[in-house]
Amino acid sequence: MKKIKNIALALCTVGALSACELDNFEGPDAGLYGEIIDKETGRKVPQDIINGTLIEIWEYGYDPVTPQRLEVKTDGSYMDTRLFSNMYDVIPVNTNFHNNATESIDTLQVEIKGQTELNFEVVPYLRVVDANISKTGSKAVATFRLEQPIDSVYLNAGDTVKRAVVIKEVGLYAHLDPNVGKDMNLGKTTVTVNDVIREGENDVYSLEFDTSRDTDFVNGGKVYLRVGAISDMPTARSNYGSTVEMDF
User: Fold this and answer.
1) DSSP string of 154-170, one letter each residue
2) Mean pLDDT confidence for 109-133
3) What is the CATH number of the domain that holds 49?
4) 24-43, pLDDT tens digit by residue?
5) Do 230 and 135 belong to one domain?
6) Transmembrane stretches, by residue range (predicted)?
7) How many domains is the chain built from?
8) Rounded to whole angstroms, how far apart are CA atoms 60 and 95?
9) Which of 7, 74, 85, 113 is the most buried (most CB within 10 A)?
10) What count of other Cβ atoms lies within 10 Å of the Cβ of residue 59?
């Protein structure tokens, strides 16, 4: 019996030492933050909160390396304050801006030490401009135009034929949450476009959403609305105007 007690005591001691070692393990001591910025306008590029642009980071010193993915907020900013000081490869993925043979974004080697700022200057697939959302009775009425900074691109190095950047769809999205968008809405009005902006064209899009016809909005209150447009580029995410808060 005494021998069993001694073994048990030894195991407890080992367990306590292991716990101490874990307690002494240093936690995250660094972070990465920044903005996605339109290189022409200098403004942040609005994003989706669900299925939107991600900042993919690969920490050095591990094999195999598993990437971490930082979500970009709807206002075009991102932040993660719980990283470890180290060298990382950093690249945006699943974007609403160009990253191809015509307009490329390089994978960056970044030393993350303390709170490190890293901004990306990009060319969006589309720009929502002159957007206006007004209220007429129970309806939200949106008008806007689109700009196409680059109308055709070489997708891959070595391509000899450019691919047109086609506007696939435009939409007006509504939600009770300010992070409203294509994949986060309680109601929407969309129109298929499947066309490009030709030289000299200046089309104004007009979309309506009737809150009285949707059970999520029949009780009135604050509704958040945003217009967006998506291109047919591979893995493209939507481009947006500003979010508008409206009382119904």
Assistant:
1) --STT--S-EE--EEEE
2) 98
3) 2.60.40.1120
4) 668 899 999 999 999 999 99
5) yes
6) none
7) 2
8) 24
9) 74
10) 16
